[in-house]
Design goal:
Elements lengths: L2 E3 L13 H10 L2 E6 L7 H10 L4 E5 L10 H11 L7 E8 L7 H18 L3 E6 L2 H11 L6 E3 L6 H9 L3 E5 L10 H5 L7 E3 L21 H12 L3 H15 L2 E3 L4 E3 L1
Helix pairs in contact: 4-5, 8-9
Length: 266
Amino acid sequence: MKWIDTHTHIYGEEFNTDRKEMIDRAKEAGVLAALLPNIDAQSIPALFRVCDEYPDFAFPMMGLHPTSVDARYASQLMSVEKALTQRDYCGIGEIGIDLYWDRSFLKEQKQVFEEQLRWSIDLGLAVSIHTREAYAEVFDSIYKVGYERLKGVFHCFSGTPEDLEEIKRLKGFKVGINGVITFKKSTLPEMIRTVPLEMLVLETDAPYLAPVPYRGKRNEVAYLWETACKTAEIFGIGIEELSVHTEKNSLELFNISIGASSLEVK
């Protein structure tokens, strides 16, 4: 079985002491590749360093996270745009709108999100979308920029059944499932049953959102297995069948290709 972690932050300082060992455990668990979304200008050097050190495993995205957007967002966005010219990427991310912590920069968040959506169209890259308490605003921006020209994934889906139905109408988009699906009180298992297998990709969001039985601990890429097992159980299919679907979906969406022994950016 082969897996692709479509959203993980293994360049973070949480992995500085055992990154190689963590990646070795991921490979032993069958994970072929980890896709790494950027956060802001400050995270770019660490992102580049890890992708250069593990070029057959770690593949970069580039974007400005919505919680890094404030009244002085222009310089951050300029740094991210400059980085887009410095290497190849598998996607644009992590981008979106987050109104959970602060609603005062909604206007700025929308401007930044829509600008990065336009980058994705220009470059032909999928987007990895972060949205928290802002699905209506995210949908509005997608339709405004042009949903028919966009493709991507709603990372760490946390919306309502109505939000999920709206995503299904966006033909180029998929749903990212991570450790939240294993949480005892999560409503995600009930909702996700309505999603076609062709729309699912798996992710960890490591070091965050570790699945049961590791909840509360540092998440890591190898724990994708726990999410996969729970997802297969929910759909009533074998783990091998889920592997085939999610690998295919990931490769269709993101700018990576599988070679004889490794993945590479197209």
